[in-house]
Design brief:
Blueprint: E1 3-6, E2 9-16, E3 23-27, H1 39-47, E4 51-55, H2 74-82, H3 93-106, E5 112-117, H4 119-130, E6 135-141, H5 155-162, H6 170-184, H7 193-206, H8 211-223, H9 227-230, E7 237-242, H10 250-259, E8 264-268, H11 280-296
Parallel strand pairs: 3-4, 3-5, 5-6, 6-7, 7-8
Antiparallel strand pairs: 1-2, 2-4
Helix pairs in contact: 1-11, 2-8, 3-4, 5-6, 6-7
Length: about 300
């Protein structure tokens, strides 16, 4: 897999499609490797005339690891946030946005359509705000504004997300990963169990690094409320959200769209917090239509 220096660290990425086609930068979410973007989704975007770059965020997959750098615990982070203090964390979502912008620079790409899922959507929001000159459009998928008044995640979804497996044996890790996927996934599109098992196992074999998500979580919590920042975004924006998302409720998608001037939103019933194969074409169509419309406007 190709790797490059970006924003002072090493980033691993994949580059698909014709280099002459308009580029799309895919930014994945909390604790997730680039492989969580389904190959079928990448192929669908390439088939619609785009060059697609997906990459491992810092501290996950094959990108740079901040080994040994401690992050505050969730309780401390939450308490400091409620008291109005910004906790000291290893890095912020803004730094992760600079990673994505740096990757575009390293690849010689002046401007791209930026698409982020979950935490990746938060990072994409920062890219659109901090590096508007690099953004042709922005799509925020199953993400949020950081507004503390929004409905919280379902208890079972948050518990399985932050809980660590009982051991590092592959069988235990796979079972945990499958439970997470089923808990936060789409009730309307449950997916094939064997395919899920293979995908989870492949991800673990590619990279197992439980320290990274701890620092990712600290960056999310420390970022706080982004609504003021979102109101400054001038990049053409599309918000995509599942109506049955148990981790980031659909109200968060509506709040995101309401805060970004001119943003459009599309919600899908039965869709949870994942990228089911049954929705690949529908999501790719929506992103392609938005991207092409942003350029023509």
């Amino acid at each position: 897999m190709p790797k490059t220096a970006a924003n002072g660290i090493e980033i691993h990425y994949e580059d698909h499609g014709d280099p002459a086609d308009p580029p799309i930068l895919l930014i994945m979410g909390f604790g997730a490797q680039l492989t969580l973007w389904p190959d079928e989704f990448v192929e669908a975007l390439v088939g619609r005339g785009f060059r697609v770059i997906r990459y491992d965020n810092r501290d996950i997959g094959l990108s740079h690891k901040f080994d040994g750098v401690k992050a505050p615990g969730l309780i401390k982070l939450t308490l400091l946030g409620k008291l109005g203090f910004t906790p000291k964390v290893p890095y912020m979502l803004a730094d992760m946005a600079d990673d994505g912008a740096g990757l575009l620079d390293a690849l010689g790409i002046e401007r791209a359509h930026v698409v982020g899922a979950s935490m990746g959507g938060m990072i994409a929001q920062h890219v659109a705000a901090r590096h508007a000159d690099k953004c042709l459009s922005m799509t925020s998928i199953m993400s949020t504004t950081g507004n503390a008044k929004l409905p919280p995640a379902k208890k079972e979804a948050m518990e399985v997300l932050v809980k660590r497996p009982k051991s590092t044996e592959e069988e235990v890790l796979v079972a945990h990963g499958m439970k997470l996927a089923r808990t936060i996934g789409s009730p309307g599109y449950p997916g094939d169990e064997e395919r899920l098992r293979e995908k989870v196992a492949a991800g673990i074999r590619r990279s197992f690094y439980p320290e990274g998500p701890t620092r990712h979580l600290s960056a999310i919590v420390a970022d706080g409320d982004r609504r003021a920042m979102l109101r400054s975004i001038e990049v053409p924006t599309l918000v995509l959200h599942g109506e049955d998302d148990p981790l980031v409720p659909c109200e968060a998608g509506h709040d995101t769209a309401a805060c970004i001037p001119g943003a459009k939103i599309r919600t899908i019933p039965g869709w949870g917090h994942d990228l089911p194969l049954e929705l690949v074409d529908q999501l790719a169509d929506a992103i392609a239509e938005h991207a092409k419309g942003a350029v023509e406007a």
